[in-house]
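Chain A, query sequence.
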Amino acid sequence: MKPVDEPVLDLASEESGEPHRSGPEAGRCILRLMDSQPFAVLCAQGSGQPYGAVVAFACLPDLTALAFPTPITTRKFRLLEASAQVALVIDSRSLHPDDMMKVEAVTVTGRATLLEEPEARREWSRRIADRHAYLRDFLQSPSTAVFRVDVCRYFYVTRFQEVMQWIPGRTG
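Chain A, predicted structure.
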């Protein structure tokens, strides 16, 4: 089931009135960035309040889904149980501390689902452990939950303000 998200945005440049380019090029840039960064900031909300938390993640090569683990005793677990709509932010600022114009960032929007089916949990836990070997024991713990995010769209930002919107599975 395709996750429900806000309507596709018209990201016209304020200066030129032309939409920013997208398509396969954006997907390749997003995958490169996500492969280069091990962590994301998970953005969730509850009781009208926003909340952010750093998570280790892994994604599918086609960028249609990603997953992250969390202890079941955390605020983020409770927030995700209450509302599945999430965003994750991944950026390269640590690579360019002296030049903001070189920083790339992507905001991923989608729906988070707790993986309860054993085979799906095993598969995603393997993917996460392949990227984050130090989490192997944590991923096996009964007090650890694994959430899959079915991606609606990506907002990829370069040069501080150039924004491309990319939706996995769409061309152009």
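The longest helix spans residues 118-131. The domain at 24-151+159-164 is CATH 2.30.110.10 (Pnp Oxidase; Chain A).
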